[in-house]
Amino acid sequence: MSADTPVKDDPAAATGGPRGRSIPPWLRRLADVNEVWTFGVLVLLVVFFTAARPSTFLTSYDVTQIATNAAIYLVLAVGMTYVIIVAGIDLSVGSVLVLSAVLSAEYTIHHGGAKAGWGTIAVSTVIALVTGLVWGAMQGWLVAKAKVPPLIVTLGGFGAALGIAEIITGGQDPTGAVSNHLQHAIGFGKLFGQIPWLVVIAFATTLVFGLVLAFTRFGRYTYAIGSNPEAARRVGINVDRHLVKVYALVGLLSGLGSVMWLAYFGTTSIAGHATDNLTVITAVVLGGASLFGGRGSVLGTLIGVFIPAVLSTGLIIMGVQQYWQDVAIGVVLVAAVYLDQFRRRGRERA
């Protein structure tokens, strides 16, 4: 028998690998899915903290608090997912949230304050959404039409939006900025008495824009532009207009986040959003989105938002100082980016 003739009865020869080491194709495809790796990290964290503190971690109270605390960041992260997929960045989301909250609060203060009714709440909500939408569209125009790098545009937007908010308020959180009706119904209210309305709003937003990204032409254009903007132009996609829409979207969701923040905390918290952009970008990158553009998903972002949330809660329960919590989250982020680059090089070699 020739040395080049395969043994017909050898199962290893049929699969093209050494005996006993063949990997089913479905398992290989599953291993290539970013969300699987991200979910695996989340599961490992839950298992570790549950084993370390079985009587105190992941109680029903913990689950509710983790979900509620992550809700606003999840809304912001959904918008950031689109921006990162088109190979952009937005460092201004926290400041846009503050500006939207301040303008919304100013209207509420002058139309009933804490005793304002649902009419005032509706108008103030529209003000917050429109503020975020317009600010995001303006930044998108500077990126798409003026060709200013998104890092510079949104870094400038970060300072400008916060500065305008401080000028309007004198740097102080105004009193009577939130209607009691909004706080009791949305901030503290629960669907069926079990699920906080903030969580419902966040997951509904995630579902809608996840479906848009995965199954609509808008989503396909987003991936195409992030992968190769010149190729996207050649096939007829209006890249500049789409970029404006993407940045307008993240601004709109920042406005929505401001309404949720006002409802839950009852204040504009002008000085409390300096690191929102880093928190949100961390979640999106942990969710498998590539900072080089062209790859990412809202499902991955959903998982990525809960990794820092679970990590922080677990470390608090274990009595770890806040400083070490920040270190741990930073290490996880760097590890996630390194893994992304490692897998990227592996695919290129293959």
TrEMBL record:
Keyword Coiled coil among UniProt keywords: no
PANTHER family to which the protein is assigned, alphabetical: ABC TRANSPORTER PERMEASE PROTEIN YPHD-RELATED-RELATED
Localization annotation: Cell membrane
The organism's place on the tree of life at top rank: Bacteria
InterPro entries from the UniProt entry: ABC_transp_permease
UniProt KW Flavoprotein keyword: no
Lineage: Bacteria, Bacillati, Actinomycetota, Actinomycetes, Kitasatosporales
Topology of the protein relative to the lipid bilayer: Multi-pass membrane protein
CC annotations in GO: plasma membrane
Single annotated GO MF: transmembrane transporter activity
Regions that span the bilayer: 36-59, 71-104, 116-138, 150-171, 191-215, 243-264, 270-292, 299-317, 323-339
UniProt entry keywords in alphabetical sequence: Cell membrane, Membrane, Transmembrane, Transmembrane helix
Name assigned to this protein: Monosaccharide ABC transporter membrane protein, CUT2 family
